[in-house]
Structure formats: structure tokens, C-alpha cells
From TrEMBL:
This is guanylate kinase. It is an enzyme of class 2 (transferase). GO terms for molecular function: ATP binding; GMP kinase activity. The gene is LOC118405844. Keywords: ATP-binding, Kinase, Nucleotide-binding, Transferase. InterPro entries: GK/Ca_channel_bsu, Guanylate_kin-like_dom, Guanylate_kinase, Guanylate_kinase_CS, P-loop_NTPase.
């Protein structure tokens, strides 16, 4: 049986990726699932192995990388994070559509693995708006915020380059951006059945369909 096509959601920190896919997960429970990454960092209080992350040690992670078990991996602040083929297949084998939240480096690597994914880039309306949103999220120190803004410029350069993503959504008005996301998923043959709430037909409608042609959609009202 063919497996559901993963949805790759990428965009600079603060562009609204998690806000958008969390709406999707909430509106369509059992249809989508976030793929659980592996990490060498220690679990934080309340985090469960296999739920927030698969927690493994560095030796094991490096061994798994050697074995080719990871679709993509990267090191941040002294810890390795990555998406394993197995984690993705586990979601797919339950006939659930995996969502991958990865950065542009991860996208480059996932593309090498020829994953038949839908690639969506979330773009902030501007760097100024991105900065405002990150500041009001109040999750970063000034230094971390500056790092994220500087990384954002590179992410945008890759994300907006024609051909790198099948779809680009400008996250201006959240509700409009979310409707655009759903529209893209419908065009990608997934959720004709979303309206019916039937997860199996959602997944079935998503199987073995050709990649949608490149589109750029904008959540702003002039769109
Ligand atoms: N369209 C929008 N209008 C206003 N605020 C928004 C919009 N979309 C997201 N936000 C807010 O912007 C902040 C950043 O969004 P979010 O945390 O979803 O970004 P992210 O891309 O997942 O970031 P990260 O990669 O750092 O996890 C959040 O506080 C969120 O509530």
C-alpha cells in the first residue's frame, strides 16, 4: 500500500510555522501528526521519550547517522537533532500524514532522500514584522533573537528562490494564511475529504498523486 505523502513546513523562526500546523493538528485530529525528532539533549521536565523527542545519546546518534538512518540532522548549541526515516515511516504506517518542521538545511537534505513530500515555505510579511512577532513571543534573549533574525535572512533567500519550494505562503493575516495552507493541501489531493472529516479518505486522496505545480500564495488581502 502506498504511504501518505509527508508535508514539509519550513520558514524562518517566528514566521508562524507552528502556529499554522498546530491549527491543522487541532482541526483535523488523527489526519496529521508531527514527526518526532531525535535529539541528544537531555529531556526537560514533563517531556516524554517518544512524544516530544526520541532522546538518545551522542554515540548512538552518530552510529545511526553512519548507518544512514537519518533523513536530515543538524547540530545546534552542542546537541544533535534529526529526523529519522523510521520516525517518519511509523507515522505513515498508521495512515497518518506526517508534518516535518525543518529548516532550509534540513530541506536540502530531505530533498536528497527523494522524499515525495509537499514542500511549503512560510514567509513573514517583512523582517520588521518578524522581529516584532519574535519580540512579543518573549521566548528569546536579545542575543538569541539577533541570531534568529540573521538566520532568517538566509532562510528567506533560500525559501524564496524559485524552484526551492512548491508553495510559498505569506503569513500576514493568520486566518487567511491558514485557509491558504488548507487550500494547498486540497490541491495536493489530500483533503478533498477534510470536509468530511474522514481521515482514511483524506489519506487515500493524497496517495500517489503528482506534485502540485509551484504556486505562491499570499495571505494579505490583495491576494
Ligand atoms: N499571522 C500572524 N499574525 C500575528 N502574529 C502571528 C501570526 N502568526 C504567528 N504569529 C505569532 O508570531 C509568533 C511566532 O510564531 P510561531 O511561534 O508559530 O513561529 P515559528 O515559525 O513556529 O517559530 P520557531 O521556528 O521559532 O518555532 C507567535 O507568538 C505567534 O503567535
Amino acid at each position: 500500500m502506498a504511504l501518505p505523502r509527508p508535508v514539509v513546513i519550513c520558514g524562518p523562526s517566528g514566521s508562524g510555522k507552528s502556529t499554522l500546523y498546530n491549527k491543522l493538528l487541532k482541526e483535523f485530529p488523527g489526519v496529521f501528526q508531527l514527526s518526532v525528532s531525535h535529539t541528544t539533549r537531555q529531556p526537560r521536565p514533563g517531556e516524554l521519550n517518544g512524544r516530544e523527542y526520541h532522546f538518545i545519546n551522542r554515540d548512538q546518534f552518530q552510529e545511526n547517522i553512519k548507518q544512514g538512518d537519518f533523513l536530515e540532522w543538524a547540530e545546534f548549541s552542542g546537541n544533535i537533532y534529526g529526523t529519522s526515516k523510521k520516525a517518519l515511516e511509523e507515522v505513515q504506517s498508521n495512515n497518518v500524514i506526517p508534518i516535518l518542521d525543518i529548516d532550509t538545511q534540513g530541506v536540502r537534505n530531505v530533498k536528497k532522500a527523494s522524499l515525495e513530500a509537499v514542500y511549503i515555505f512560510i514567509k513573514p510579511p517583512s523582517i520588521d514584522v518578524l522581529e516584532k512577532r519574535l519580540r512579543s513571543r518573549k521566548t528569546e534573549t536579545e542575543e538569541a533573537l539577533q541570531k534568529r533574525l540573521s538566520a532568517a535572512r538566509n532562510e528567506l533567500e533560500y525559501g524564496l528562490k524559485p524552484g526551492n519550494f512548491q508553495h510559498i505562503i505569506t503569513n500576514d493575516d493568520l486566518d487567511v494564511a491558514y485557509e491558504k495552507l488548507k487550500g494547498i493541501l486540497i490541491k495536493s489531493q489530500m483533503p478533498l475529504a477534510m470536509a468530511t472529516g474522514s481521515s482514511s479518505s483524506v489519506v487515500n486522496s493524497f496517495l500517489d498523486k503528482p506534485a502540485a505545480s509551484a504556486t505562491t500564495v499570499n495571505s494579505s488581502s490583495q491576494d
